[in-house]
């Protein structure tokens, strides 16, 4: 059993681990090797085997490939046939050097002066992300979030059909949600095995998440998307991605606070008032705007 993958260092540090921290799954993490992320294995167009190339792509780059795919698909829908790396990097919000590096993991498909063929690049990214096959999804915990996920029509078209729903509430078991009857928690291993579920989504309260996770793993599920604010223990062959909206909001809060600080300092500097940037010289300013005594 190991600590959940995809966490940044520090979180849950008190938890027992049976092996060193796994790679970081943070989408915005850089490519630089860190304690949580293996060094990038040099791959070029000369690497013959696409599978070997795919295995060497850092997780942060994988997350960006998914963003490029979304952007490219929108461009294709609008009739674009080629795209320059500058256009694509701007649309994806990534600098062009990083974009070229990311695409180099797929092999060299750009043409100097022309750019990339949109359809070709879409195909390469889809193959690399394993999107050319279907991944059956099960959702456990059919409350607010589970209902929304079960009713969301966007997953099947992207290769993620929702094929099983689970809950413990007797009022929900047997009731169809999004056209699929809810099964009981105890049926998770059997149903997941029978329906060959490859991705399990956990939308239960945190106290129930680990037992649900164990049942999903017993049913052969190897990838788990966890919405519950808890760190899951899983065997090494199981991949867990955690969606923590509170953490995302806290990160945004940090940026809002910093911008407010910057605006306040700029306004004070213009007005030359006491408490201005000058007066604050030598004092640190906390993220919440409080001045930290030096
Ligand atoms: N709703 C949100 O916007 C939101 C956002 C971020 C994170 N989350 C997290 O997602 C999870 C679900 O949130 P929610 O608002 O949908 O909660 P909810 O209370 O509406 O639904 C939880 C569901 O899980 C079921 N459940 C409880 N124990 C279970 C078990 N052992 N096996 C299977 N099902 C079980 C309950 O019967 C209920 O239907 C929580 O952990 C929450 O912290 C929710």
UniProtKB/TrEMBL annotation:
Residues annotated as binding NAD(+): 141-146
UniProt function note: Modulates transcription in response to changes in cellular NADH/NAD(+) redox state.
Gene3D superfamilies: NAD(P)-binding Rossmann-like Domain (3.40.50.720), Winged helix-like DNA-binding domain superfamily/Winged helix DNA-binding domain (1.10.10.10)
GO biological process: negative regulation of DNA-templated transcription; response to redox state
Gene that this sequence comes from: rex
Any one annotated GO CC term: cytoplasm
HAMAP family for this protein: Rex
Biological source species: Prauserella marina
Name of protein: Redox-sensing transcriptional repressor Rex
Keyword annotations: Cytoplasm, DNA-binding, NAD, Repressor, Transcription, Transcription regulation
Residue range(s) of DNA binding per entry: 67-106
